[in-house]
Design goal:
Elements: E1 10-16, H1 21-34, E2 38-44, H2 47-55, E3 61-65, E4 73-88, E5 108-112, H3 119-130, E6 136-141, H4 144-153, E7 157-161, E8 172-176, E9 183-191
Parallel strand pairs: 1-2, 1-3, 5-6, 5-7
Antiparallel strand pairs: 3-9, 4-7, 4-8, 4-9
Length: 193
């Protein structure tokens, strides 16, 4: 896929997390400019469904979060996505440059459900524990889009990967979390055979 000149004709199915729809659209637009004979099918889902689609041959490639516990798949890390705090612009914390765990003491928090399976979740909890703060997690969402809407209309803040916060909604602000960044690795996956 890095050299569209070598792709003459065909249909490629890619399974992605919804937060990557903008990025993949930009890449596909470039590829269409180079070669109009390439057709794409995009399937969206959470990490487990992406792994399943690639493993079952329903998608040629997947773009998802690590870890991947599947011996039938290869993967290559694309990058690391830092965790960010999402809050309303009226929140007194919105004037800060970085949000520390002690700043969130007692504040209701919403997380993305998938983040609880990544090592980043363990790091988030550890960051709170080191600050002697018990996180007040009131809920989980399936997507960043829902998390952003809940923060805008709900009682608290959200923790989400930065890539999902590119679609930030008016009235919300996104800030770094913790003394140093916590990352969720992102990878492209494909079948070994």
């Amino acid at each position: 896929l890095s050299d569209p000149q070598n792709l003459v004709m065909g249909n490629i199915t890619i399974a992605i997390l919804p937060i990557f729809s903008t990025s993949i659209s930009e890449v596909l637009a470039y590829m269409w400019e180079e070669n109009m004979n390439i057709q794409f099918s995009i399937k969206e889902g959470h990490s487990k469904s992406i792994i399943s689609l690639v493993q079952n041959g329903e998608a040629h490639l997947g773009i998802t979060r690590l870890p991947i516990h599947n011996s039938e798949l290869n993967y290559s890390i694309l990058g690391n996505d830092p965790i960010r705090v999402v809050l309303r612009t009226q929140d007194p914390l919105s004037v800060k440059e970085r949000i520390l765990p002690r700043d969130l003491k007692g504040k209701p928090m919403v997380l993305i459900r998938g983040s609880t399976i990544h090592s980043a979740f363990t790091q988030i909890v550890q960051t709170f524990e080191e600050s002697r703060v018990k996180p007040n997690i009131i809920g989980h969402t399936e997507t960043v889009t829902t998390l952003l809407k809940m923060v805008k209309h709900g009682p608290g803040v959200g923790l989400a990967p930065q890539s999902g916060c590119n679609q930030v909604i008016d009235g919300l602000k996104v800030l770094p979390f913790g003394e140093s960044d916590i990352y969720i690795p992102t990878a492209v996956v494909w079948r070994k055979n």
